C-alpha cells in the first residue's frame, strides 16, 4: 500500500451530483511522522477545489430509464476522479455514492433500479473499492446527512483534536451544526450534560478513533425537518396566499416592489421565459409590494409551532428537540444559511459575522427598492457577479425564512437586540481566539473553514479514515454510529464495507479475482488474436504449431509403438485448416478390381530418375512410386519399392503392409500398376508420344 489513501464521495442531490475527492496518510505512515499532539488527533484529511466536479441534473431523473445513469451521468464524474487519483492507488480507493432529497421521493422500485445500475456501472468500468454496494451506494436519511455535517464542522474547527482550545464551559468543546437545502433542514448538536442524561434515548452514539488508536465517543442529537427547506417553505407560503383569496392578483410583501410573477395552484413560481417562448398559464399572479416587516409576519406561521408536541420539549412542527443551552452550544450554519446571509447582503462589508440587527436592516433596505432599480444594480454587478435576477427575486422571502427559523424556531438569541448568554465560564484566551474566527456567537454562517468547504461529504470521509486506524486491542470497539447503547448496538452503522487491500500487480489476479465479469471478453479477444496470428503464419506453420499442441493428447493403442491412435480433430482445427487426421476409403486388398476404382489426387513427387515418372517434367498422377532411400527412418529392409509404395499409397505403414499378406501385397501392387499402365488412357498417351 502506498503512502497516501484516497476516498471518493458522490453527493447525489436533487439538482445534480458532485464528486468529492479526499486523501490522507495511511495509518502506519501517519504514526511514524506524528508528534505527540498529532497522535491524539484524527487523521488529517486533505482535498483541493480542483478535485471537485458537479454535473446536472440529479440521478433521480433517471428513475424511468436507469440504464442510462452510468454512461450519461456517472461516466463524467468517475472519469474526473480517475484523472486526479494515481492509477496505482485506484484499486485501494473506496467509492461512495450517497443520495439525498431527490432520490428519497422516487418510487421504491425506481430507486432500487437506479442504485443497482450505479453499482454495476462503477464495478464494471473502474477498479474502485466497492465491497458492499448496499453500504457504499445508498439513499441516506436527513439525520445521517446532519450527523456527517456535524462531524465535518467540528473536525475543521478543532473541536475533536483540541478540546482544551475550544472549552465553551461546562466541559463542552463541540459546535452545533445547522444545514438547510431546498426541501429540508437539519440540526445536530451535543446537548449539555443535564439534557444528555435526560434525553439519552434520543441521542446518537458516535465513535471515532485517533491515530494512536484512542477511542473518541460523542452523544449527538440529530433531527431533520422535512418541508422546511427554502423551496418547500416558499411553496407552502404561496399556497397559503392562494387559499386566502379568490382574486387573480395577490399582493406579496416578500417580493420587491413592482415585480410580477405567475404561480400555479400548487404554489410553484413560474418562470417568465423569453419573448419568443410561449408563456405558461398560471392560476394567479403575485405583485410585489416590498414590505419586509410584513413578510416576516406572514412567514412566521410556516414554522407550525402550534402543532402538538408529543415528547417535550419541541421547537417547530411538533418535533422533539432537547433544550439548547446557548451558553455552550455555538452553531455554525451552511448551505442556505450562508448563501442567504452573505451572497448579497455582505457584499462590500467588512463585518462577516452574522448580526441580527445589522442583517435585518440590510435586508429591509434591499427589499424596499423598486424592481427596476434592482435590475439596474444586477446589470452593474452591484452585488457581485453571482447575483442574477432569480437570486434577487427570491432573497427577500429566503431572508425572512432564515430569520424566522433561527430566532423564532430554533431560539438563537438576536445579536444586537437581545442580550447574549452569560459567558463567564469561558476564558479570555478562548474569547480572543473566538473573535478571530467568529465562532463563539450563538450562530455564525460559514462556507469554508481554513479554505476547506464545510460539506457533509467531508464528515463521511473523516469517519471512514478514522475506521482504518488499527485498533489498539482486540476488545476495542468499532468506529461508526448507532443508538445510544453500550457496546455495538443492533442498528450500528459502519463507515464502509470490509476493506480489501490490493497488493497484487498481476493482471491475471485482477482479471480472475477482482473483475471476473470481464473473463468472457478476455477470451473473445484472445481467440481473435490467435485467429489473426494463424492467418499470418501460413498453413505449414499452423500445422506444426497444431501438432505440437496436440502431441500430449495423442496416445498409443497397442504395445507396438508404431501403432498409434489417430487423434480426434477439434472443430477449431478445421477452421484453421489443421485437420491432423485424413480419412481414407477402405480398399479390399484381396480384390484387384476394387483397387482399379481407387485413384489418388494428382501429387508432386521429387525423383532423380525419369523412369519413375510418366511425364518428362517429373510430374506423376495416380499410383506413382517414390524412390527408395535405405537410410530413411521408415525403411525396414527386405522390401522393394513397390512394397514401400503400397504401404504409403494406402495410408498404411510398411509393417501393416506385411501384416496383410506379405508377398501377396507386392504381387497385388504390381498387378494394379500393370493394369493401369495398359489402360486405354495410358495407351493413347503413349501412341501420341511416339507420333
UniProtKB/TrEMBL annotation:
It comes from Ophiobolus disseminans. The active site is at 145 (proton acceptor). It comes from the Eukaryota. One of its GO terms (biological process) is UDP catabolic process. ATP binds at residues 182-186. It holds the Pfam family GDA1_CD39. Residues 659-691 are annotated as: Disordered. Keywords: ATP-binding, Hydrolase, Membrane, Nucleotide-binding, Transmembrane, Transmembrane helix. Residues 675-685 have a biased composition (Basic residues). One of its GO terms (molecular function) is ATP binding. One of its GO terms (cellular component) is membrane. This is Nucleoside diphosphatase. The chain crosses the membrane at residues 519-538. Belongs to the GDA1/CD39 NTPase family.
Amino acid at each position: 500500500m502506498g503512502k497516501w489513501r484516497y476516498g471518493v464521495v458522490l453527493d447525489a442531490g436533487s439538482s445534480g451530483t458532485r464528486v468529492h475527492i479526499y486523501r490522507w496518510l495511511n495509518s502506519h505512515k501517519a504514526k511514524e511522522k506524528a508528534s505527540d499532539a498529532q497522535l491524539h488527533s484524527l487523521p488529517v484529511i486533505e482535498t483541493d477545489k480542483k478535485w471537485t466536479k458537479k454535473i446536472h441534473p440529479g440521478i433521480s431523473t433517471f428513475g424511468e430509464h436507469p440504464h442510462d445513469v452510468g454512461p450519461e451521468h456517472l461516466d463524467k464524474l468517475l472519469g474526473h476522479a480517475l484523472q486526479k487519483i494515481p492509477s496505482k492507488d485506484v484499486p485501494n480507493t473506496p467509492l461512495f455514492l450517497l443520495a439525498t432529497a431527490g432520490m428519497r421521493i422516487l418510487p421504491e422500485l425506481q430507486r432500487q433500479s437506479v442504485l443497482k445500475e450505479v453499482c454495476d456501472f462503477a464495478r464494471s468500468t473502474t477498479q474502485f473499492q466497492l465491497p458492499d454496494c448496499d453500504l457504499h451506494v445508498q439513499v441516506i436519511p436527513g439525520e445521517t446527512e446532519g450527523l456527517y455535517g456535524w462531524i465535518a464542522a467540528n473536525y475543521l474547527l478543532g473541536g475533536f483534536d483540541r478540546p482544551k482550545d475550544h472549552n465553551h464551559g461546562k466541559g463542552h468543546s463541540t459546535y452545533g451544526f445547522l444545514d438547510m437545502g431546498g426541501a429540508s433542514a437539519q440540526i445536530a448538536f451535543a446537548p449539555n450534560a443535564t439534557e444528555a442524561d435526560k434525553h439519552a434515548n434520543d441521542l446518537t452514539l458516535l465513535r471515532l478513533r485517533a491515530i494512536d488508536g484512542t477511542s473518541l465517543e460523542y452523544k449527538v442529537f440529530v433531527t431533520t425537518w422535512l418541508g422546511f427547506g427554502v423551496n418547500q417553505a416558499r411553496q407552502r407560503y404561496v399556497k397559503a396566499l392562494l387559499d386566502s383569496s379568490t382574486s387573480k392578483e395577490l399582493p406579496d410583501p416578500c417580493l420587491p416592489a413592482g415585480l410580477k410573477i405567475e404561480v400555479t395552484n400548487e404554489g410553484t413560481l413560474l418562470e417568465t421565459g423569453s419573448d419568443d417562448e410561449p408563456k405558461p398559464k398560471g392560476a394567479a399572479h403575485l405583485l410585489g409590494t416590498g414590505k419586509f416587516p410584513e413578510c416576516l409576519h406572514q412567514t412566521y406561521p410556516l414554522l407550525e409551532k402550534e402543532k402538538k408536541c408529543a415528547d417535550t420539549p419541541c421547537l417547530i412542527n411538533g418535533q422533539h428537540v432537547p433544550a439548547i443551552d446557548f451558553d455552550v452550544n455555538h452553531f455554525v450554519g451552511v448551505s442556505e444559511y450562508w448563501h442567504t446571509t452573505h451572497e448579497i447582503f455582505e457584499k462590500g462589508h467588512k463585518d462577516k459575522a452574522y448580526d441580527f440587527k445589522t442583517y435585518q436592516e440590510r435586508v429591509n433596505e434591499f427589499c424596499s427598492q423598486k424592481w427596476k432599480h434592482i435590475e439596474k444594480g444586477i446589470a452593474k454587478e452591484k452585488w457581485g457577479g453571482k447575483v442574477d435576477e432569480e437570486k434577487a427575486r427570491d432573497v427577500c422571502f429566503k431572508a425572512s425564512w432564515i430569520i424566522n427559523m433561527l430566532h423564532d424556531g430554533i431560539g438563537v438569541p438576536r445579536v444586537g437586540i437581545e442580550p447574549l448568554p452569560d459567558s463567564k465560564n469561558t476564558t479570555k484566551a478562548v474569547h480572543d481566539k473566538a473573535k478571530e474566527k467568529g465562532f463563539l456567537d450563538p450562530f455564525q454562517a460559514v462556507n469554508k473553514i481554513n479554505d476547506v468547504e464545510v460539506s457533509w461529504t467531508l464528515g463521511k470521509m473523516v469517519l471512514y479514515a478514522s475506521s482504518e486506524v488499527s485498533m489498539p486491542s482486540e476488545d476495542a470497539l468499532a468506529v461508526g454510529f448507532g443508538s445510544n447503547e453500550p457496546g455495538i448496538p443492533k442498528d450500528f452503522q459502519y463507515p464502509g464495507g470490509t476493506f480489501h487491500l490490493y497488493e497484487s500487480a498481476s493482471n491475471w489476479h485482477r482479471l480472475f479475482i477482482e473483475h471476473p465479469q470481464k473473463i468472457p471478453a478476455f477470451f473473445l479477444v484472445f481467440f481473435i488474436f490467435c485467429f489473426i496470428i494463424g492467418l499470418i503464419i501460413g498453413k505449414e506453420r499452423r500445422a506444426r504449431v497444431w501438432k505440437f499442441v496436440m502431441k500430449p493428447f495423442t496416445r498409443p493403442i497397442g504395445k507396438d509403438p508404431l501403432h498409434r491412435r489417430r487423434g480426434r480433430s477439434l472443430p477449431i482445427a478445421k477452421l484453421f485448416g489443421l485437420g491432423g487426421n485424413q480419412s481414407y476409403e477402405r480398399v479390399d486388398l484381396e480384390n484387384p478390381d476394387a483397387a482399379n476404382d481407387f485413384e489418388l489426387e494428382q501429387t508432386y513427387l521429387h525423383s532423380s530418375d525419369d523412369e519413375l515418372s510418366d511425364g518428362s517434367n517429373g510430374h506423376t498422377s495416380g499410383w506413382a512410386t517414390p524412390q527408395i532411400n535405405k537410410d530413411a527412418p521408415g525403411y525396414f529392409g527386405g522390401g522393394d519399392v513397390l512394397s514401400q509404395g503400397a504401404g504409403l499409397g494406402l495410408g498404411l505403414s510398411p509393417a501393416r503392409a506385411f501384416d496383410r499378406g506379405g508377398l501377396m501385397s507386392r504381387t497385388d501392387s504390381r498387378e494394379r500398376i500393370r493394369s493401369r499402365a495398359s489402360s486405354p488412357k495410358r495407351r493413347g498417351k503413349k501412341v501420341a508420344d511416339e507420333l
